[in-house]
Amino acid sequence: MRNIYLSLYLILIGSLLGNFEVKGQESTFVYGDALPDAPELALRGDLTVGVRTLEFVNKDQLDINNIQGGTPLIYDRTMVVEVWYPAKSTEVDSLTIYDDVLGVPGNPNRPVVPFSFSGRASRDAEPDLADGPYPLLIVSHGYLGSRFLMTYLTENLASKGYVVVAIDHPESTHRNPGKFSSTLYYRALDDLFVLNQMAALGMQGTDSFLSGLVNADITALIGYSMGGYGVLNAAGAGYSSQTMQMFGQLTGGSKVIESRVSGNAAYQTSMDERIKAIVALAPWGMQRGAWDAEGLKGIRIPTFIVAGDQDDVSGYEDGVKAIYEGISNAEKYMLVYQNARHNVAPNPPPSASYAPDLDLNEYYHYAEPVWDQRRINNINQHFLTAFLGIKLKGLDYGSFLDLTKESTEESWKGFKPRTSIGLQLWRGEPEND
């Protein structure tokens, strides 16, 4: 009984930490809100935000999750996506509720635990076409994850004049986990499929709310962990032959991933010119040989990488940093959180993860041991606002990226005095091989 009361107490405390009110003043903290020391561009934009849920079906696809004799079956691949967009709603602080789960179905040590949290968006609000159409951002979560993993970022960017769509990748979510081989094969393909779906719905004259709202000709891809892996491949980093071997070992000999391997003629022609920039947060794969030097040369669009220099999932020296160093034909940046591990992208841990009877992995699926996750969120908002504003909107944000490599050498532009600490920003120009 004592443990039950303790669990309830910790969940209550967690809820208070995630959402609190100051007497006489509405002051509910929602994921993504600016802390007192948030850098300048982390603050939300002037636009109110609407949110809607859509479902896309990619028909007659290879069912990598079910392979017989090395040959995948065929199925319809259904994707649920969440879309945030500039809205006409006058309720600037309108709250919506997002529903997600912790845990892994079928794993008795990590039971499925539903949880909910608030966001600052108006559900099904009328879109604001006044300054549209708006550039498109496609967001891809990690393995396992969900479309709600980075709402601090999706809402923030929508408030600054973007249409943001986040994908629930089939066989890769907490609700619907599947074989890792499905994630290896489909991450880049899901991004490209959703790009085409959003472009079709955004055309003038469709009966979709996206008609005239989204400009898919100006698109950026944002991916975390396995999402970063997919984003790099969608942008031109062809997989290595070692990736094909790993995939074959996982699937009993299937070679279908060869279509995304560096040097494959079909892969080379799959590059989509609508993708103008990419953001890869803690991208997975380099330690496992997913790319070689030749494959990384294929990226030729501006790239922003976010890393923790103690990443123990994707690796740093031979992982994320090696990806950054291998990109030689694109303008590139790498923001480094010193003493951070892998979780440089998600929302803060939900209060449900505080329960002492849950596996600690539920908490550390979101949290960093050293950094305040809300602080990371604000810094990410700041730098991605600058990078995407420059590359997709032509905004004059260059001075926010023209910084000393070491944040301790001087206070970085946009940061409050004495707060640009524990960070590095690497920059590189294309060699144009």
Give an account of the 3D structure:
The protein is an alpha/beta fold and 433 residues long. The protein has a single domain, classed as Rossmann fold. The chain is built from 10 helices and 12 strands. Helix 8 (316-326) links the parallel strand 10 (303-308) and strand 11. The termini are far apart. Residues 1-26 have low confidence and may be disordered.
Structure keywords:
ten-stranded mixed sheet; alpha/beta; 433 residues; two-stranded antiparallel ribbon; globular; 26% helix; 12 strands; Rossmann fold; single chain
CATH class: Alpha Beta
Low-confidence stretches: 1-26
Average pLDDT metric: 93
Rg of Cα set = 21 Å
Order of helices and strands: HEEEEEEHEHEHHHEHEHEHHE
Spatial strand arrangement across the major sheet: 5-1-2-7-6-8-9-10-11-12
Briefly note the CATH topology name: Rossmann fold
Write the layout of secondary structure elements.
Layout: H1 2-18, E1 48-68, E2 71-87, E3 95-102, E4 113-120, E5 122-123, E6 134-140, H2 151-158, E7 163-168, H3 180-201, E8 214-224, H4 226-234, H5 241-251, H6 265-268, E9 275-281, H7 293-296, E10 303-308, H8 316-326, E11 332-337, H9 360-363, H10 373-393, E12 423-428
Parallel strand pairs: 1-5, 6-7, 6-8, 8-9, 9-10, 10-11
Antiparallel strand pairs: 1-2, 2-7, 3-4, 11-12
